[in-house]
Amino acid sequence: MQQQEGGKQTKDAKKALAKALKKKEKAEKKAEVEYQREVRKKREEERMENERKREEEKRRKEEEEEEKARALEEERRRQEEEEYKKWENLISVESEGEGVKEALLNDETRVGELLGRLEREKVCVVDEVACELGVTSEEVVSALETLEAEGRVLVVFDDRGKVMVVSEAEAEAVARVVEKEGRISLAKLTAMCDSMIDLKGE
Question: Compositional bias (Basic and acidic residues) at which positions (predicted)?
Answer without folding.
Answer: 25-75
